[in-house]
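Is this the right way to post structure tokens for a design question? Let me know if I should format differently. Anyway, here goes:
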């Protein structure tokens, strides 16, 4: 009799515990982060993750999204496209409300069919132009499409009197897309491509590439590599005393590159879509909170991760429910003001493909830091 009573008590406790867990789950909104936490993309992925984690922490402290706390699951894709695809498959099985990552364009590309079939809004950091040219309905960028970024930099080169450029790029989805977009914009402005130099992902020795670039009859050099490769290239470039202007995008002048390259990065110029040094109190306050939380300065990837989570909150609240289909329809063609939604840090607009438009910056590296030299307005394409 005692044994039966004990079993009944244990059974009731188990049922109560299960009911409690179901109730807690019902009060949560599940997000999934598929990110590069090891391998060649760890520098970018770890920054993106920290931005995501900071946003989740702040949103939960303020009451969550429509009264629900965010429950975040993070998995490392090891910077490998096929592992990123496997991680995405596991994520889809968990039926999250939204996903974030990857950073690398090649990994995003192989996960895209899974995202679309499952109809899960996904915020990515990759910039390859082809990602949003495939008719995806649930893919959204946290950074510029190369087709938006490259015209801004090419226009600056033209205004600066540059007539010829040597182009150095990395032979992956990011690099080829960026190279193609930049060459198109240079040619449209009558700027000659004096050399077209491809390099390999993970390349360690850039001596041949820098010699080829130095010998090219070019007024300036445009470099489009991933962050760690960019740092190695700049160090090799300075060793041979290259003294012509060097230009790039966020991947050349991001904080991780500056930390790795040290003095070799000084003088490099670039166009960036996001910077904690932007002349904005909201962005600078984010930069201070990020440094307090993690002990390091955020680069553009940290901002991307943070803004991605904040967009999930803002769009969901505009929809008024956790409806993934309505979420995607609402974000396409939408505009948001930072004065109304300070968590977004900047005004932003999305087009019908998931590409964004907002102000951006020209910077020069001085004493290991980005110094903003010009604020560029949105292109107004979305």
């Amino acid at each position: 009799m005692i044994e039966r009573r004990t079993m009944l008590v244990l059974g009731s406790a188990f049922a109560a515990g299960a009911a409690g867990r179901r109730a807690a789950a019902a009060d949560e909104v599940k997000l999934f982060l598929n990110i590069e936490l090891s391998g060649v993309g760890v520098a970018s992925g770890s920054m993106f993750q920290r931005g995501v984690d900071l946003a989740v922490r702040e949103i939960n402290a303020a009451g969550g999204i429509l009264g629900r706390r965010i429950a975040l699951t993070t998995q490392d894709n090891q910077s490998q496209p096929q592992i990123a695809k496997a991680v995405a498959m596991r994520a889809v099985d968990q039926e999250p409300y939204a996903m974030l990552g990857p950073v690398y364009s090649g990994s995003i590309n192989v996960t895209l069919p899974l995202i679309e079939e499952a109809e899960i809004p996904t915020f990515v950091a990759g910039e390859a132009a082809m990602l949003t040219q495939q008719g995806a309905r649930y893919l959204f960028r946290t950074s510029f499409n190369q087709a938006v970024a490259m015209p801004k930099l090419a226009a600056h080169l033209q205004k600066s009197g540059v007539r010829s450029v040597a182009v150095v790029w990395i032979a992956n989805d990011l690099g080829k897309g960026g190279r193609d977009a930049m060459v198109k914009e240079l040619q449209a402005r009558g700027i000659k491509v004096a050399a077209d130099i491809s390099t390999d992902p993970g390349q360690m020795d850039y001596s041949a590439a820098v010699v080829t670039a130095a010998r090219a009859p070019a007024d300036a050099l445009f470099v489009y590599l991933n962050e760690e490769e960019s740092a190695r290239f700049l160090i090799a470039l300075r060793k041979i005393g290259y003294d012509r202007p060097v230009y790039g995008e966020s991947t050349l002048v991001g904080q991780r590159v500056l930390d790795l390259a040290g003095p070799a990065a000084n003088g490099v110029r670039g166009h960036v879509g996001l910077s904690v040094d932007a002349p904005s109190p909201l962005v600078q306050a984010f930069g201070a909170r990020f440094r307090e939380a993690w002990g390091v300065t955020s680069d553009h990837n940290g901002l991307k991760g943070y803004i991605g989570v904040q967009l999930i909150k803002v769009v969901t609240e505009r929809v008024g429910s956790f409806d993934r289909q309505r979420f995607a329809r609402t974000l396409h063609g939408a505009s948001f003001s930072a004065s109304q939604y300070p968590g977004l840090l900047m005004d932003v607009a999305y087009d019908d493909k998931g590409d964004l438009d907002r102000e951006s910056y020209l910077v020069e590296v001085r004493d290991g830091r980005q110094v903003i030299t010009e604020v560029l307005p949105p292109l107004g394409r979305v």
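Format looks fine. Someone answered above. Worth noting: The chain has two domains: 24-144+279-350, 147-272+362-376. The CA atoms of residues 134 and 282 lie 34 Å apart.
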